[in-house]
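hi!! sorry for the late reply, been swamped w classes. u asked for the two structures so here they r. pasted raw, havent cleaned anything up. first the sequence of the first protein and right below it the tokens
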Amino acid sequence: MRTILFDFDGTVADTLPLIFTAFRSTFQQFLQEHYTDEQIVALFGPTEIGILQNELPPHAHDNALAHFYRVYTDEHSRVQNPDNIRSMLDELHSTGIQMGIVTGKGRKSADISLREWGLDSYFSVVITGDEVTHPKPHPEGIFTAMQQLGATPAETIFVGDSDADVLAGRAAGLRTVGVDWLLVTQKSGKFDPEPDYHFTDVHAFTDWILRR
């Protein structure tokens, strides 16, 4: 194994609580409606821009997006990414494994999280929802990342916390790893379909990778 491609939110970044807060604040401000976490997860697929465009009237789009980014950025100073995630990335990076991100979030919000939590140095490629025509579960983003890294399916795995991640990885011909090692993930119950491997502990996953 030479290459690991990760989903971002809920996988290597504990950003889902921040995303929920930013969307909830935006919808409350511009729609005067309260959205639950489950309702927000149901909107996932498009980038943040697409979600807000789908939910809000056109005249509110620019102000709502500015509000979303402001709240989302501020939340990073209040919440830190778990230390065990950074330890995992440090260990994997030190072995020479190349790592990349394939995420449905937009480029701006991905860059905010990578910068605010100091994660950008670990990943050789970051493919966001802005750079693909077809979001996960379509494998386009995975194919793009592999092409940029010069990786082959036989030496690459895809790691994520949602059914869409497993489906995208399978469609790209990769072995898939489903994870629910963070307190807040997109999963509610078992994966469907089941990934090739399943981990609930960051250290167990790291040990598994380093033994291969």
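now the second protein. again sequence first, tokens right under
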Amino acid sequence: MRFRTMLTMLGAGLLAACGVNSVPTAEENVNAKWGEVQNQYQRRADLVPNLVATVKGYAAHESGTLTKVTEARARATSINITTDDLSDPQQFERFSEAQNQLTQALGQLRTVVEAYPQLTANQNFMALQSQLEGTENRIAIARRDYNEAVQAYNTRIRTFPDAVGARIFYGAKPKVPFQAQAGAETAPTVDFGNAS
């Protein structure tokens, strides 16, 4: 009887040491952080139509830029990535690229807006612009938090003793973190138009 109790306690201790609870806990943390990333991207996508409509009223002949923003938003919202896809680098790259295209299109829109002082004085536009800037900051924070959760999860499933339980019980695969956009290491050229 005493031997069985000791064997049961030893077995429970070994299971606990093998990541039986810590691996799913870490994975749920990654999934929750991913949910926040998606939430912030959706918030941005929801703001874009109102921003485009406001700009359209002032800058009707800038329809090319407005079309690019609208198309980029459509691409960004059409790529859905689930928590199961977080271990698939190709799916993750498709999602990330679509979001980066929307970011670039919004940057072009900001450039257009600067040519219309009456638009930048419009209260509705200013409120939308402020919300969009705040959302971009929230996206950056959500991506950072997601990457930290991915790092903790990936470390847990690759290190002993949790790696044993991660492979045996869960078949755990590393999650894909966000990475810098290609060319991000190169500083943009700033030209104030006063070349001599």
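hope this helps!! also noticed smth abt the second:
Residues 22-58 form the longest helix (37 residues).
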